[in-house]
Amino acid sequence: MSAFIFFGWHIQSVFSQNYDNTYFISPLNIPHNFSGSFGELRANHFHSGLDFKANMHTPVLAVADGFVSRIKVSPWGYGYALYLTHPNGYVSQYGHLEQYNKIIANFVKQQQYKLKNFTLDIAIDSSVLKVKQGDTIAFSGNSGSSGGPHLHFEIRDEKTEETINPLLFGIKTLDNENPEFSMLKIYPADIYSTVNGENIPINRKIINTSITEPCKILDTINVSGNAYFGIECYDRQFKNSNKNGIYKMQISINNQEVYNYSIDKLSFSNTRHLNDHIDFAEYIRTKKAFQTTKTSPGNKLSIYNRVKRDGCFYFKPDSLYSIHYIITDFVGNKKDLLFTVKGAKPNFDNEIIPVTNRNIVDTLDYETDNIYRTNNFEVEFPIGTLMDRLFLEFQILDKNKNCFSKTYSIQNYETPLYDYLNIKIKPDTIADSSLFSKLLMVYINKTGAYNAIQSKLDGEYIVAKYRSFGKFTLKIDTIAPVITPINVSNKKNVKKQKNIRFMISDNLSGVESFDAYLNQEWVLVSFDGKSSMLQYDFDEHLKSGENLFQLIVKDAKGNVCIYSASIFY
Fold first, then answer.
1. SS3 annotation, 526-543
2. What is the pTM of this model?
3. Would you say 474 and 467 are in contact if contact means Cβ atoms under 8 Å apart?
4. CB of 282 within 8 A of CB of 290?
5. What is the Cα–Cα distance from 68 to 73, expressed in whole angstroms?
6. Which residues are within 8 A (CB) of 234 and not within 5 positions of it... i.e. 6 or more apart?
7. pLDDT in tens, 139-165
8. Are 387 and 434 in contact (CB under 8 A)?
9. Which residues contact 356 (CB under 8 A, 6 or more apart)?
10. Residue 5: is its pLDDT beyond 50?
11. pLDDT for the residue 434
12. Residue 111: pLDDT over 50
């Protein structure tokens, strides 16, 4: 008999909750076709709702009686977004909208004029904007960081702000497609273990023989010591080409369940713990998301129903192990994968050579605050930034051209962070003291490009927060943003137009604010971040005859660009 040894259990969520599947209706009165599923793996987070495919201007319905409790307008993120609070203790959220209904749109415009700002994030009293189930509250669109027309829909717990899988509330989907496996990856769990004789992971292509038969791999995997598994998989909806996320994963070894998760709800406070759920280094290199069984001690995800031995398993020499994966979508379609692992004897002739070229300067405990200081530089790791003990790698590199400090390299691009680092860099002496206010911290990405970080002066240091390891330095931004008119010019007659449009951009620190004036009075302009398009839609502020239009764009370091033109209407 094969022996399989467990040293402990990791169980975080074993309770199920019943949800009323008759209270909410669908937010769209069209057949449901999802371009994104709840809990789908995204960059640095789980997807917190359902993405309904929908053409522009599709009516969006209130899923239940309630009131508009929050309105958010942003060039990024969910764009035009709406939040309804319902008497049953839940909040429904609607994102990437094209526009609101007339009553809500008028209210939003009043608030934007009151605050003199296109960007909006306001809480609203329950007596102001009441809605009934089935009311058209908005129209679907492509605003914010959307990659195409759709409706992003969420249901949140009003008290905890956890987001709940909307399918638990009875929203239906037509789906008879099984999930699919793509690739298996097997990892040695420590420097003393091997997979097929090497202390490196191996990949195996998964063979799908038929719809009804389990998938397989072609060879037996030999493991000496401890190993863990990673799987690349996805789900398709009926007649849908999108690769969505699965709902549930189960793994058994010799008919003993060792791993089980299901995604019913998520917390925004730890959604970044996704980066511990996947092989983060592989994702950074290839954008392939392998879901790994190994969990770090700081992982707070509530999706796990069972994880034995923290997802790392010992394989006894000369014993055979049958590994059985089951992946399932929400309606119960499933797919199996079967493969065999053979325990191998350790090869003590192979000398383990310690890694000596990593520039390790400290060992950090994930359960405490940590600070590392050196000349002109400091980085703080608050509790929550790390998931496990970290051997901190650090280097001071030569100063790059046109930079105002040396380059400080913290760890590497393939190690995840789970919250913000606090970083302080002391700049070089600057001959022109007026330029000191133009200093900012930048992140040097893998391609060598500079990404501006929101930063400020604190004593002698430039300080900033950032959530990725990598290289940091200081630069100066003295260049104003650029305004490029699209359909307007000085003295132009715009009587036949509905709007005037501009492209706005900035070379480094980024656009911080924009304000438009018509005949010296502030007017509302909209801005779409992904296209960099700014637009003034003609309204009651545009008068017959000559009008003076002025657009002022400021970047994060106070550099200003002004465009002025007379327009005739």
1. EEECCCCEEEEECCCCCC
2. 0.93
3. no
4. yes
5. 14
6. 179, 180, 182, 243, 244, 245, 246
7. 999 999 999 999 999 999 999 999 999
8. no
9. none
10. no
11. 87
12. yes
Q: What is the token pair recorded at 166?
A: 């909307």
Q: Give the CA-trace dihedral at 455, 456, 458, 463, to 10 degrees.
A: 0
Task: Assign 168 to helix, strand or coil.
Answer: helix
pLDDT digit string, tens, across residues 229-271: 999 999 998 777 899 999 999 999 999 999 999 999 999 999 9
Tokens 């709940």 sit at which residue? 164
Buried b (16+ CB within 10 A) or exposed e, 462-490: bbbebebbbbbbbbbbeebbbbeeeebee
DSSP label at residue 559: -
Give yes or no for residue 9 having a pLDDT over 90: no
- pLDDT tens track for 483-495: 999 999 999 999 9
**Taking 60 as the threshold, does the pLDDT of residue 502 lie above it?**
yes
Asked whether residue 10 carries a pLDDT value surpassing 50, the answer given is no
Enter the tokens of residue 95: 């994102």
User: Alpha carbon of 356 to those of 11, 191, 212, 526: distances in Å?
Assistant: 37, 14, 50, 54
Task: Report which of 220, 252, 253 is spatially closest to residue 340, judged by C-alpha positions.
Answer: 220
Strands (E), 316-401: 320-328, 334-343, 360-364, 370-374, 377-381, 390-397
| Average pLDDT value for residue range 61-89 | 98
What band does 348 get if pLDDT is binned at 50, 70 and 90? low
The residue behind tokens 């699919």 is 180
Distance between CA atoms of residues 458 and 307, nearest Å: 45
For residue 258, which amino acid is it?
Answer: V
d(CA 275, CA 273): 5
Token pair 């033109």 in the structure block, residue:
565
**CA distance linking residue 362 with residue 366, whole number of Å:** 13
Residue 365 region, left (φ>0) first, then alpha (ψ -120 to 50), else beta?
beta
What type of residue sits at position 143?
S
pLDDT at 382 over 50: yes
Q: Are 359 and 395 in contact (CB under 8 A)?
A: yes
Alpha-carbon distance of 529 to 79, in angstroms, equals 9
Q: Are the beta carbons of 500 and 493 closer than 8 angstroms?
A: no
Question: Tokens 């359902």 label which residue?
Answer: 50
Helix (H) / strand (E) element for 104: namely: helix 102-115
